[in-house]
Amino acid sequence: MSNVFPSPHPLVAHKLTRLRDKNTEPKKFRELVREIAALLAYEATADLLTVPKQVETPLAVTGGVELKEKIGLVPILRAGLGMVEGVWELMPQAEVWHIGLYRDERTLKPVEYYNKLPIEPRVSVCLILDPMLATGGSAVATADILKRWGVKKIKFVGLIGAPEGIAAMQKAHPDIPIHLAAIDQTLNEHGYILPGLGDAGDRQFGTG
Ligand code: PRP
Ligand code: URA
Q1: 144 given a catalytic annotation
Q2: Known catalytic membership, residue 103
Q3: Residues with CB under 6 A from ligand 1
Q4: Per residue in 64-93, pLDDT tens?
Q5: Could you read off the pLDDT of 117-134 as tens digits, one per residue?
Q6: Model pTM?
Q7: Cα angle for residues 126, 129, 133 (degrees, 5° grid)
Q8: Residue closest to 43 by CA, chosen among 90, 80, 77
Q9: Is it true that the peptide bond before 10 is cis, omega within 30 degrees of 0?
Q10: What are the residue boundaries of the structural domains of the chain, listed by start?
Q11: CATH architecture of 4-205
Q12: What angle do CA 173, 180, 185 make, to 5 degrees?
């Protein structure tokens, strides 16, 4: 699992435990999703390229850097939406491109319903944002879309991954690093992650 990075950070583990709690109400749940997403994005972007840039302080001119790469945040609708704000706060220059996919309840295969990407890619590195990597179908399909769009550097940032979903991503897209708050045990017969946190979309939007 060399390209899988479960966060070692105690803050992430603490917040994830509250997120899993079935008694955590949607307002707190959204806050935790936002905060964990930001912490994971911080870890996931540690290798972003920079270029030198001079800066003038009130006292002297000194050397600094600025980000070289144009970043795209790609939330998978709808549960990925809750991850955008926390990450965007860290990198306000990023562009946000939405991909709409839902899982067919019977087949568990992703169905695409929204994609407004322009013909030419306008970003050089994309962070796919989705809380749950279950069978992996949604993440694999989104990475397929982004690669067809022409993006070469892609990272997946999620909250919880199942071994099944991680394996599917590694098989289809071995070049894409996977950043997670935790790796769980397995999927149940309905394709939900165990122990997981339930339905990430329903818990954020109060629709369960
Ligand atoms: C959830 C989740 C992922 C997908 C993961 O979305 O947010 O997108 O399931 O499952 P997979 O790895 O098996 O594809 P869902 O389809 O429930 O849609 P929603 O976000 O609109 O609720
Ligand atoms: N989607 C969710 O929201 N939760 C799961 O456990 C699996 C897919």
Answers
A1: no
A2: yes
A3: 76-79, 102-103, 108, 110, 130-139, 165, 191, 200-201
A4: 999 999 999 999 999 999 999 999 999 999
A5: 999 999 999 999 999 999
A6: 0.97
A7: 120
A8: 90
A9: no
A10: 4-205
A11: 3-Layer(aba) Sandwich (3.40)
A12: 90
